[in-house]
TrEMBL record:
<dbReference type="InterPro" id="IPR005467">
    <property type="entry name" value="His_kinase_dom"/>
</dbReference>
<feature type="modified residue" description="4-aspartylphosphate">
    <location>
        <position position="875"/>
    </location>
</feature>
<dbReference type="InterPro" id="IPR011006">
    <property type="entry name" value="CheY-like_superfamily"/>
</dbReference>
<dbReference type="Pfam" id="PF00072">
    <property type="entry name" value="Response_reg"/>
</dbReference>
<keyword id="KW-1003">Cell membrane</keyword>
<protein>
    <recommendedName>
        <fullName>Sensor histidine kinase RcsC</fullName>
        <ecNumber>2.7.13.3</ecNumber>
    </recommendedName>
</protein>
<keyword id="KW-0997">Cell inner membrane</keyword>
<dbReference type="InterPro" id="IPR003594">
    <property type="entry name" value="HATPase_dom"/>
</dbReference>
<dbReference type="Pfam" id="PF00512">
    <property type="entry name" value="HisKA"/>
</dbReference>
<dbReference type="GO" id="GO:0006355">
    <property type="term" value="P:regulation of DNA-templated transcription"/>
</dbReference>
<keyword id="KW-1133">Transmembrane helix</keyword>
<dbReference type="InterPro" id="IPR003661">
    <property type="entry name" value="HisK_dim/P_dom"/>
</dbReference>
<dbReference type="Pfam" id="PF09456">
    <property type="entry name" value="RcsC"/>
</dbReference>
<feature type="modified residue" description="Phosphohistidine; by autocatalysis">
    <location>
        <position position="479"/>
    </location>
</feature>
<keyword id="KW-0547">Nucleotide-binding</keyword>
<dbReference type="Pfam" id="PF02518">
    <property type="entry name" value="HATPase_c"/>
</dbReference>
<comment type="similarity">
    <text>Belongs to the RcsC family.</text>
</comment>
Amino acid sequence: MKYLASFRTTLKVSRYLFRALALLIWLLIAFVSVFYIVNALHQRESEIRQEFNLSSDQAQRFIQRTSDVMKELKYIAENRLTAENGVMSSRARDDKMVVPDFEPLFADSDCAAMGSAWRGSLESLAWFMRYWRDNFSAAYDLNRVFLIGSDNLCMANFGLREMPVERDDALKALHERIMKYRNAPQEESGNNLFWISQGARQGVGYFYALTPVYLANRLQALLGVEQPIRMENFFTPGSLPMGVTIIDENGHSLISLTGPDGNIKAEPRWMQERSWFGYTPGFRELVLKKSLPPSSLSIVYSVPVDLVLERIRILILNAILLNVLVGAGLFTLARMYERRIFIPAESDAQRLEEHEQFNRKIVASAPVGICILRTIDGVNILSNELAHTYLNMLTHEDRQRLTQIICGQQVNFVDVLTSNNTNLQISFVHSRYRNENVAICVLVDVSTRVKMEESLQEMAQAAEQASQSKSMFLATVSHELRTPLYGIIGNLDLLQTKELPKGVDRLVTAMNNSSSLLLKIISDILDFSKIESEQLKIEPREFSPREVMNHITANYLPLVVRKQLGLYCFIEPDVPVSLNGDPMRLQQVISNLLSNAIKFTDIGYIVLHVRCDGDYLSIRVRDTGVGIPAKEVVRLFDPFFLVGTGVQRNFQGTGLGLAICEKLISMMDGDISVDSEPGMGSQFTLRIPLYGAQYPVKKSVEGLAGTCCWLAVRNTSLCQFIETSLARSGVHTQRYEGQEPAADDILIVDDALEHTWQGRAAVVFCRRHIGIPLERAPGEWVHSVASVHELPALLARIYSIELDSEALSSALPTTDKTADSNDDMMILVVDDHPINRRLLADQLGSLGYQCKTANDGVDALNVLSKNAIDIVLSDVNMPNMDGYRLTQRIRQLGLTLPVVGVTANALAEEKQRCLESGMDSCLSKPVTLDVLKQTLAVYAERVRKTRA
């Protein structure tokens, strides 16, 4: 509890610390903002100072240039004054000499004495000034040059430019400067003197420079120059709207061109400095002061603070706004965090304290033992009374084993048998308690459950034995019933070929139907029993889906023809030649769907369509039967469910067929769906994965390219499939509407020919035809609708094109003529089952063949050695010697007689194995009279040709 109270205090302290953290973050952001603004301000000041310096450089160049000009004039004046008066008089012959104007500066100034003493020198100097004015004065922009005698204080004026001069102001200023110069100390009297006089306009005045002229180390005169000065020339192009002022050494303003805020007031703190940059008091202006050597003047540039802050004013406003927003955001975040985190956490801490007390009471009153063991040594830290009792029941070895398990942390529970035979189950989880690694253990007395589990196990074993007995009983009974049923069905089929008395044929038909139904019921019950007991396994192997479809259609085609229906089988070219799966179970599912379609269809046809759908093989069975109501489709695959009432219930069955189909397809990783509408028919679609699929080589039948076939097919599905199949072989198809055909054209119809066809041949797709294509009249072929995919092979045969084994899907050749009597043929029937052997013998006898029988392969070889046998009809799986070894032995003996295999699984692999062993063909059980008749007729005719 102390820990929980401390935790609540920590939460309160954390809340205040979080507030302080938010404040510190805000202060940090404010400091960064101020630092950024100050940096921007300094950068702006640096830019302005650079502009000030550039402008001051122009003023400095002006002063320096004037000083240089004055030095040159001083040198010239000294040279002229040292010359004798008659030196330059010779020039009077060429030029008229000009005498400068003399002006007294003081009342006692003696200008006559100056004129007589320096007349020749002044005339020479005046002549030079005129020459200099005409050639160089424009470059230096001088108004005038004057010379003042040191003794007589009279000024000789050498005017260089015609311009008005403020005489009184100029003389007054000159008088003041001369007096200042003469009264200056000895050490300062040799310095040059510079001053400026303000003109009539602001920023425009006159710049004066005065320098002493010495002759023989004695001051003889003062030489001065006057030059116009314009303050606007001291600005760089495109500079700021700044103010500029030139001041003397005492800080007095001589001339100025003020900016937006007027004149600059002199300040003691920067007037004493030769160079200074900073703000005026009150931060009204930013000022730069620089001296202008060699004069004692200084130039001062100023710009209002508003212009300095103009560019960063928006930045300052943004920074203030940012800090206000950040402060508000941090305050809101801190407040929200407190309301959502700290305040609920404090409430949770209080509730946790209450829960701690509550949990202790629950642990104490729990019906199971609960304890906390230290992981290191297994010491009991906390436990309720029941756990304490259970722990005392454990032996020392059990305690050590429990400690090792807890330390290992590999399992979460352990079963222990205590010393008093009590079964304890100890489950635990690892956690932390009071800063230690612990295991929370729950001890439960499971003695009652253990006894119950033992009883349930005994009951399960008994149920398993009963299930095995039931399965064995069903399998045995089903197998024992199936064998005589095969005999009954075969003999009934044989009996139907006889001429029976009136009324007896109806009884035989009813017996045949009942026997077939009973056989199917027994097969369904056996399969469903195996599925429910998980004894039925899918046996995947490589098989050919094309052969499976051919086998199924061959089995059901007689029944479809007998019911006057049509069975259309469409196998798309993209169907693989082989894939991995269970062909037996696939055949069972498709046969069941096809059987139901035949059963529930009285008028119309049935379509078996096989194609590839992505990674699945799609098989669709569609009929035009009675259909299924929508409310009963959802229960269609339930065991023992029979559809509807009325018409549907007239068809008897167990209701297991579709349930078995759905389970078998699911075991093959596929799916099955149904789409039905009452009165329109039903469509079942099943899909199985294309595991290990091998696809056929996409090549057309050579020789058919360019041929023409005319189509007069009424069935739309049949017409589309024929067009697609023939287009793959390069055959050109057209709809026939009475056009005149060419000599090699072929007509394809699905009805009887109404007139004589003038082309090469006509192919009639007949729903009643069973077996391979036959030429019933010259140029008129009949083809089964159950093998439409074999049409290209028939066309190749009509055009006399040789085909390889891959192009042929029919294993049997045709014969042009069938014998009326078969009593000249001796057939050997080899089968180990007496009923099947007798049944085959009777079927052959009904077809007119002579027959001998053998029990197995060894017995068959004995019969062959003693009798002249024409055809061998042998079962495949037999004891002693099976049909494969029998065929191989016959071929080894050099016998070429036809050998036809009979098997219950005549699929692609079984058929291929039969052919590889030397057999000519393979038939699947049950073998009907029609199939047996067609097959044996082909080989009987071959034997007759061999005899001839």
